[in-house]
Design a protein that fits this description.
Radius of gyration: 20 Å
Order of helices and strands: EHEHEHEEHEEEHHEHHEEHHHEEEEH
Structural class: alpha/beta
Largest sheet: 11 strands, mixed
Strand content: 15-25%
Oligomer: single chain
Number of strands: 15
Length: 349
C-alpha cells in the first residue's frame, strides 16, 4: 500500500466500506485498512488492491491504535481518516476530502453530514453556503487527522474503546482554531444509522455513563463547562470570510432554507433556534475553552505525567527529537498522574 493517505474503518457485518471502493485502485489517493470487530465479517472479507484486513476485538479507537501500530503506519501517511462503518460515500468524494485538508493545511477536519443523515451535533451538518467552515469542533464519527496531530493523540486513543468526550477537547489545542479545524461542506457524506443507539447502553452498562466520562474529561482539562461549538470563519467559492458575524449570518440563512429537508426536521429547527439564541455569546466565550497546542501536549505527556521523549530518524545522517511519538514502530508511554487519569477516562476496562 503506497498512497498518501490512510482510511481506517472499524467494521462489522453491515459495513458500508465497499461503497467507498467504487474507483480503480490507482485513482485513489488513499489506502484502506478494514479492522473488523466481527469475526464472521473478517473471515468473509475479499482481498482487493490497496485494502488490508485486520481483526481486533476491542472498540473503535483502541482498534485504530492497534491498526496503526500493527502496520507501522504512523509516519507513512499525510492524513488518517477514521469513519464509522455506517458512513456512505463514493471514493472520489473521499479523494476530494483529502485534497481539501491538505490545501488548507488542516490538522483536524471532517466531511459534513448530508441533510438526510442521522445527526446529533447540528454544526457538522452540511451548510450549503460554504465550501468549508473553520470551527472548534469535529465529531468522533468521521474525523480526518493530520499525521502530526495523530502522533500527538496516540497516547490517548491507545486504551480508548469509545469516542465519548474526545471531540470535546481535540478541537481546542490552538490559539487560532479557524486555521486548524474545519467542517468540509463541499464533500458531504451520509450517516445512515441513528447516533449512539448501541454505544450509550454499552457504556452505561459497564458503569461509566457518558455524562460522567465527559464531565471528568472537562475537569481534567480545566474547562468549567462543555465547550460551545462555533464557526469562526469560512470559505465561500474559494474565498475566505474571516468575519464571525458574516459567517454567522450566512450559516443561519443557509440552514433556514434546508432545515425542513433534514431527516429529522423538528430536531434541525430546534438546534437552529439554539444557534440563533446563543451564537454571539458562544463566540465571546470561546477563549474560555481555548488552550495552546503546547499546553495540550503538556496535559497529555509532560510535567506531572513525565516527558515522553523518543528519537525519530529523519534520514540516515540526522535524528529529530519529538515528544508523544514512536520508536521502532512502537508507542513509548510513561503513564502517571494526569496522563494515567486521562487514559482511565478514555478506557472502558
Amino acid at each position: 500500500m503506497t498512497a498518501n493517505n490512510l482510511v481506517i474503518v472499524r467494521a462489522g457485518k453491515n459495513s458500508l466500506h465497499n461503497h467507498w471502493l467504487d474507483q480503480a485502485p490507482e485513482t485513489r489517493s488513499w489506502d484502506l485498512i478494514v479492522s473488523y470487530f466481527d469475526k464472521e465479517a473478517f473471515d468473509s472479507h475479499q482481498e482487493q488492491p490497496g485494502v488490508k484486513k485486520l481483526y481486533y476485538e476491542g472498540g473503535k479507537w483502541s482498534g485504530i491504535y492497534d491498526a496503526i501500530e500493527r502496520t507501522n503506519s504512523l509516519r507513512s501517511y499525510e492524513y488518517f481518516w477514521c469513519p464509522d462503518d455506517d458512513i456512505y460515500s463514493k471514493g472520489e468524494n473521499i479523494n476530494e476530502m483529502f485534497i481539501t485538508a491538505k490545501k488548507w493545511n488542516l490538522e483536524l477536519c471532517q466531511p459534513a453530514l448530508t441533510n438526510a443523515s442521522f445527526f446529533f451535533h447540528f454544526i457538522v451538518t452540511q451548510c450549503h453556503a460554504f465550501d468549508l467552515r473553520f470551527t472548534n469542533f469535529v465529531e468522533v464519527m468521521l474525523p480526518c487527522i493530520s499525521c502530526n496531530y495523530m502522533i500527538d493523540i496516540m497516547p490517548i486513543i491507545k486504551s480508548r474503546h469509545t469516542g465519548v468526550g474526545l471531540d470535546l477537547i481535540w478541537g481546542t489545542p490552538t490559539l487560532n482554531p479557524k486555521n486548524a479545524v474545519a467542517v468540509l461542506d463541499k464533500t458531504p457524506m451520509a450517516h445512515t444509522r441513528p447516533v449512539g443507539a448501541v454505544l450509550k447502553g454499552v457504556v452505561n452498562s459497564m458503569g461509566q455513563p457518558q455524562r460522567k466520562m465527559r464531565n471528568q474529561l472537562l475537569e481534567d482539562f480545566g474547562f468549567h463547562r462543555r465547550p460551545d461549538q462555533v464557526a469562526l470563519a469560512g470559505v465561500v467559492q474559494g474565498e475566505l470570510i474571516d468575519d464571525p458575524e458574516a459567517v454567522y449570518k450566512l450559516m443561519i440563512d443557509s440552514y433556514e432554507e434546508t432545515a425542513i429537508h433534514y431527516q429529522n426536521p423538528a430536531l434541525a429547527l430546534e438546534r437552529l433556534n439554539q444557534i440563533k439564541e446563543s451564537y454571539k455569546n458562544q463566540i465571546a466565550a470561546l477563549n474560555d475553552f481555548t488552550i495552546t497546542r503546547k499546553d495540550f501536549n503538556r496535559l497529555i505527556a509532560e510535567e506531572n505525567c513525565g516527558v515522553i521523549e523518543v528519537n525519530v530518524e529523519k534520514d540516515r545522517n540526522s535524528k529529530a527529537t519529538r515528544k508523544n511519538t514512536i520508536q521502532n514502530g512502537k508507542i513509548n508511554l510513561q503513564k502517571s498522574n494526569l496522563l494515567q487519569r486521562m487514559l482511565n477516562i478514555f478506557s472502558l476496562k
